[in-house]
Amino acid sequence: MSMVHVAPEAHLVLDPLTSFLAEEREDVISYSMDPIMAQLDELDLIADDLINSLSPDMQLKSSFPGRETTALSAGFYGNAFYGIIVGLGVAGLLLLVMGALGVM
């Protein structure tokens, strides 16, 4: 946020963002918010990347090109593996119970 010195001899400054004309005073300190706004923009990109990580078909900020469906295929194979393991465990437990009851 920079101030434009309209009339340095009259100590008049203009704020270009609000078009506010005021007297320049020694007891008022004005800080530039540009570095903070740059950091906020970076945090906004990080927040968007965090939201994109919840969707398997969105590309992440730090990923390589062409890897949009990696999370989708990894989720498919991971869930298929655990489904097979749980299914075989339930089937084996069912066979043990049926063998103990003498149904087979």
TrEMBL record:
Any GO BP: one-carbon metabolic process
Record field: transmembrane: 80-103
GO molecular function: tetrahydromethanopterin S-methyltransferase activity
UniProt topology in membrane: Single-pass membrane protein
Predominant localisation class: membrane
UniProt subcellular location: Cell membrane
NCBIfam families (alphabetical): methano_MtrB, PRK00965.1
Role summary: Part of a complex that catalyzes the formation of methyl-coenzyme M and tetrahydromethanopterin from coenzyme M and methyl-tetrahydromethanopterin. This is an energy-conserving, sodium-ion translocating step.
UniProt-recorded name of the protein: Tetrahydromethanopterin S-methyltransferase subunit B
Lineage of the species this protein comes from: Archaea, Methanobacteriati, Methanobacteriota, Stenosarchaea group, Methanomicrobia
